[in-house]
Every structure is written in structure tokens, then in C-alpha cells.
């Protein structure tokens, strides 16, 4: 019986020292302040935001998404909002990229695309620009269309990309 009591005492001592070590280690991690996660009804002090998304283009010559952008303004004053993060997603929920608004309230990206099965259909359904909640402004989103285009623009200024339009592909498989 005495042997069992000493084993229990040893196990209790190990458990207490382990818990103490965990408490010391856990308290060494600094706490990071998080912005409140709430909607407009929960946090009425959040500022309303206006957001619009531009029409993007899938450039099939360079396999890039171009002109993917959003404009963010204060709904009350109409002024552009600076330094807010906007994330861009496909209609299927795939992240295309993110950017911060500039002094004009614009955030935009250009993204390279791998055209696998279903990608074209996913992109032709458009994209969503989502304003990341910052604890000051109401999180919001806007939807933008994506069209198919090429580098073969007929408007100036001319560039070396124009040469791609003048080249005729030759089928050497015959």
C-alpha cells in the first residue's frame, strides 16, 4: 500500500510541474488585439461603405486576368477610403489576390490564370471584391463581370503586343 501512495505522489508531482510549465509557457505569448467581428446591427458604430467592382478581362493571349478592381468610398461623405484591404475571389470562392485601396479609393490586381477544366466557366460567372472587416467600416462586397479579350487592341498606343495579332498560326501536323 505504501508503494502505491508513493507512485501516486510522484505522478501528482509530475502533473503539477507539467501544468506549471504549460502556464508559464502560455503566458509568454503576447496577446494580440483583434477587431470586433460583428455586423451592422451588432456594432452600430461601424461606418457604412460604398463599393463597386469594375469589369475585368480574361486575356487569352497572355493568360491573365486584367482590370480586376474595386472602388471603395465613404457612403456619407462620398470620399474615397484609403488603406483598406480588398480581397478578390472567383464566383466559385477561389482567392485571386488582394490589394489595399490607394488615395483614390481603388484597389486592383492582375492575376495569372491556369486554364484547367471548368476555369473558363468559373471566370465567366464573374468575381467578387470583398472589403475585409477592420473594426471601423462595415464589411461589404461587390460583384464584377469578367469578359474574354486579347492583346489585339486597335486603339493607340501601339506596342509590340500588336505583332501577336498579325502572326498567322501554321498547322504543321499535316
Keywords summarizing the entry:
elongated, four-stranded antiparallel sheet, 174 residues, five-stranded mixed sheet, 30% strand, alpha+beta
Radius of gyration: 27 Å
Calculate the mean pLDDT score and round it.
74
The general outline is elongated
Task: Note the beta-strand portion.
Answer: 25-35%
Order of helices and strands: HEEEEEEHEEEH
What percent of the residues sit in helical stretches (DSSP H or I)? 10-25%
Main sheet, how many strands, which sense, barrel? 5 strands, mixed
Q: Using DSSP, what is the number of strands?
A: 9
Alpha-carbon distance between the two ends: 94 Å
Assign the structural class, choosing from mainly alpha, mainly beta, alpha/beta, alpha+beta, or little secondary structure.
Answer: alpha+beta
Instruction: Flag low-confidence runs.
Output: 11-35
Provide the fold topology:
Layout: H1 2-27, E1 49-53, E2 56-59, E3 64-74, E4 85-90, E5 95-100, E6 106-112, H2 119-124, E7 127-131, E8 141-144, E9 146-149, H3 162-166
Parallel strand pairs: 2-9
Antiparallel strand pairs: 1-3, 2-3, 3-6, 4-5, 4-7, 7-8
Molecular structure report:
With about 170 residues, the protein is α+β, with helices and mostly antiparallel strands. Helices cover about 20% and strands about 30% of the residues. The strands form two sheets. Strands 1, 2, 3, 6 and 9 form a five-stranded mixed sheet that branches. Strands 5-4-7-8 form a four-stranded antiparallel sheet. Strand 4 and strand 5 form a beta hairpin.
